[in-house]
């Protein structure tokens, strides 16, 4: 009987440690990542530039936004981008396919000559969409956006 009670105490301690471990894992915040899949790139030349902002005043170019998150990758690196460890919140995303690699969206008569895209894939009218048209929530865990890259010229 002594060995049975020893087993019971050991099992209770082990079970408590196991439950504590599960509770700690459940309480730990999930990594907040954003995976961006690009569709309809017309070629693998140049770079892809992505800008993620929470401030409507700096959308879509994010140039003066000190808090914007930026990512640039070679266009031939694939059709996927990732932002990792993001704070949860509302964001707007803009994408440029900088085919000639000069670091900007080239235009002709104010019409983009290179590819562009936005979160939510809004209809394109005259000029870029408004922040409210493309805003989306990033929540703890995995988040995804599929962006159709558009070319006008």
Task: Give the topology, please.
Layout: H1 2-27, E1 32-39, E2 47-53, E3 69-74, E4 80-83, E5 89-98, E6 107-108, E7 111-112, E8 115-118, H2 131-134, E9 136-138, E10 141-148
Parallel strand pairs: 1-10
Antiparallel strand pairs: 1-4, 2-3, 2-5, 5-8, 5-9, 6-7
Tell me what you see in this structure.
The chain is an alpha+beta fold. It folds into 2 domains: 1-29; 32-148, Immunoglobulin-like, CATH 2.60.40. It is 20% helix and 35% strand. The protein has 2 helices and 10 strands, in the order αββββββββαββ. It has helices at 2-27, 131-134; strands at 32-39, 47-53, 69-74, 80-83, 89-98, 107-108, 111-112, 115-118, 136-138, 141-148. Strands 2, 3, 5, 8 and 9 form a 5-stranded antiparallel beta sheet that branches. Strands 4-1-10 form a 3-stranded mixed beta sheet, with no helix packed on it. Strands 6-7 form a two-stranded antiparallel sheet. β6 and β7 form a beta hairpin. The longest helix is centred in the first third of the chain and has 26 residues, at 2-27.
Q: Which key terms come to mind for this protein?
A:
single chain, 153 residues, alpha+beta, Immunoglobulin-like, 5-stranded antiparallel beta sheet, 3-stranded mixed beta sheet, 2 helices, 10 strands, 35% strand
């Amino acid at each position: 009987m002594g060995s049975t009670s020893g087993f019971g105490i050991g099992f209770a301690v082990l079970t408590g440690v196991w439950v504590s471990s599960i509770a700690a894992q459940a309480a730990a915040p999930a990594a907040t990542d954003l995976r961006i899949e690009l569709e309809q790139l017309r070629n693998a030349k140049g770079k892809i530039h992505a800008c993620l902002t929470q401030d409507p005043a700096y959308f879509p170019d994010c140039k003066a936004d000190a808090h914007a998150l930026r990512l640039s990758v070679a266009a031939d690196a694939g059709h996927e981008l990732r932002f990792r460890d993001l704070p949860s919140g509302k964001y707007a995303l803009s994408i440029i396919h900088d085919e000639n690699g000069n670091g900007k969206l080239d235009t002709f008569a104010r019409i983009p000559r290179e590819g562009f895209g936005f979160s939510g894939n809004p209809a394109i009218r005259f000029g870029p969409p408004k922040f409210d048209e493309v805003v989306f929530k990033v929540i703890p865990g995995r988040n995804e956006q599929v962006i159709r890259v558009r070319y006008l010229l």
